[in-house]
Structures are given as C-alpha cells and as structure tokens.
Design brief:
Helix content: 40-55%
Order of helices and strands: EHEHEHEHEHH
Protein name: N5-carboxyaminoimidazole ribonucleotide mutase
Oligomer: single chain
Pathway: Purine metabolism; IMP biosynthesis via de novo pathway; 5-amino-1-(5-phospho-D-ribosyl)imidazole-4-carboxylate from 5-amino-1-(5-phospho-D-ribosyl)imidazole (N5-CAIR route): step 2/2
Largest sheet: 5 strands, parallel
Radius of gyration: 17 Å
CATH architecture: 3-Layer(aba) Sandwich
Shape: globular
CATH topology: Rossmann fold
Catalytic activity: 5-carboxyamino-1-(5-phospho-D-ribosyl)imidazole + H(+) = 5-amino-1-(5-phospho-D-ribosyl)imidazole-4-carboxylate
Strand order of the largest sheet: 2-1-3-4-5
Number of strands: 5
Strand content: 15-25%
CATH class: Alpha Beta
Organism: Novimethylophilus kurashikiensis
Keywords: Isomerase, Purine biosynthesis
Structural class: alpha/beta
Bound molecules: 5-O-phosphono-beta-D-ribofuranose
C-alpha cells in the first residue's frame, strides 16, 4: 500500500477473512492502486459499518470491495448506505464452503446492486481486478497496465507445455 489517497476500500467481516481477501489487496498492489483495508462487521460492529458506508464517498474512495462469510450481509448493507460501487466477495465458510456466503451476497433485491464475485481467493483477486478496470475508465495509464496484464496472461498460457511423468 502507498501513502497516497486510498481509492479503494477493502473491508471484511473478520480478520479470519483476510487470508482470502488479501488476494484483492495483492492485485491492487500489483497495479499500484492505493487502498485501505480493515475489518468492519455487519453483525458485530453495525454502527461502524454505517459510519464507514456513509463517509466512504466523501473520504475519496471510488469503490468498495467487501468480503464476508456465512450470512454475509456486509456487502449488501454497505451498498444500502452508499452510492459507490460495491464489489462483494463470498468468503468460504466453515460448514457450507461459501455457498451460503455466495447466495447471501448475490441475491440482492432490485434497487441496491452488489457486483458479486466467485467464492474465495479467485473472487477476491477478480474483485481487485474489477476495481482496477473501474478506475481505468478514467485513467489511461491504468488502462495500459491492465492491457499489459492481459497480454502477459495470454502469453503465459500460450507458452504452457505439458510433460508426462517418466
Ligand atoms: C463473518 O463471519 C465473517 O465475514 C467471517 O467470514 C465469518 C466468521 O467470522 P469469525 O468467527 O472467524 O470471526 O461475519
């Protein structure tokens, strides 16, 4: 993270979500996008959640990545209190492997959208990439970096060779 104005907030319901959510942070680091990461729980710190969501736009954030597991209300509740784009990441849960988290986040009623990503690390990384893409709509340098990332990814796959075990 840099000490520039953070453009993306990464929030999560518990520090136990961080091993998954740090994939979003790593992606933003790779693209040089300043962000802030912290724990905000819909269930355990509801007042903090409201305060965070109400102030997020005036604090200069352009997008919020919100990860939570189980009955994952955080992304939807934050989206209800801000007009910033909210990117929801379902964190794998102990008993239902994140299917509960996914359904809780994705099934938002009409009117309050949450862009919902895949369960787990891939979803967190893609939420980071999506935040980069959002910012790249008004930042050509970032758009060029995103194109270079895609190109490198393509070349990596084209250079894959398969070897049989002896
Ligand atoms: C949710 O409950 C969090 O997002 C986390 O995924 C889950 C479990 O939290 P801990 O019991 O690990 O703190 O609110």
């Amino acid at each position: 993270m840099t000490n520039q104005q953070p453009l993306v907030a990464i929030i999560m319901g518990s520090d136990s979500d961080w091993p998954v959510m740090q994939a979003a942070a790593a992606m933003l680091d790779d693209f040089g996008v300043p962000y802030e990461a912290g724990v905000v729980s819909a269930h355990r710190t509801p007042d903090l959640m409201f305060e965070f969501a109400e102030q997020a736009r005036e604090r200069g954030f352009r997008a919020i990545i919100a990860g939570a597991g189980g009955a994952a209300h955080l992304p939807g509740m934050v989206a209800a209190k801000t007009t910033l784009p909210v990117l929801g990441v379902p964190v794998p849960s102990r008993h239902l492997q994140g299917q509960d988290s996914l359904l809780s986040i994705v099934q938002m009623p009409k009117g309050i959208p949450v862009a919902t990503f895949a369960i787990g690390e891939a979803g967190a990384a893609n939420a980071g990439l999506f935040a980069v893409a959002l910012l790249a709509t008004t930042d050509n340098t970032l758009a060029d970096k995103l194109a270079a990332f895609r190109q490198a990814q393509t070349e990596k796959v084209l250079n894959m060779t398969l070897r049989r075990d002896a």
